[in-house]
Write a structure and sequence with these properties.
5 helices; alpha/beta; 3-stranded mixed sheet
Length: 144
């Protein structure tokens, strides 16, 4: 059985997908996250991050996604930031926290029937994790 048979009508989203389709999915996901996960989603921000709200009972936080990124990268960033929102581990290791967010976010997207090309997703993950690891190495070498 080949990959297409297993996936049926599921379309894998990638940088070659139509921009309009990616944008529609992006905005639909933002609505779903706001409704189901009680988190504001801002898709036209200057940066990508998850900011938890500690003082609000009804809203758990906000997700900001850089509006200048291509839509596939915005989807990947949204997955990652949702991963931060859903990660309930107690790790204090930055690289572990980031790794958890990448994996949880990818699983969340799959649960929402959004299949992002795994090669593109995990390439972005490795790039971002490498930046955290490189920062750590710089910090460690300056301490020694």
């Amino acid at each position: 059985m080949n990959k297409e048979d297993l996936l049926g009508d599921v379309k894998i989203l990638s940088s070659t997908s139509k921009e309009d389709n990616l944008e529609d999915i992006l905005y639909e996901l933002a609505e779903t996250i706001e409704k189901d996960l009680h988190c504001f989603v801002y898709l036209e921000s200057d940066d990508c991050c998850f900011i938890p709200y500690n003082q609000h009972d009804d809203i758990v936080g906000e997700i900001n996604i850089d509006g200048s990124l291509p839509n596939i990268e915005r989807l990947i960033a949204l997955a990652h930031e949702v991963g931060h929102l859903l990660d309930n581990s107690d790790s204090t290791n930055t690289v572990q926290i980031e790794l958890n967010a990448w994996h949880i976010g990818y699983k969340y997207m799959l649960m929402e029937s959004v299949v992002i090309d795994s090669e593109e997703y995990f390439d972005k993950m490795y790039k971002c994790l490498s930046e955290y690891i490189d920062k750590g190495e710089e910090k460690w070498t300056s301490i020694q």
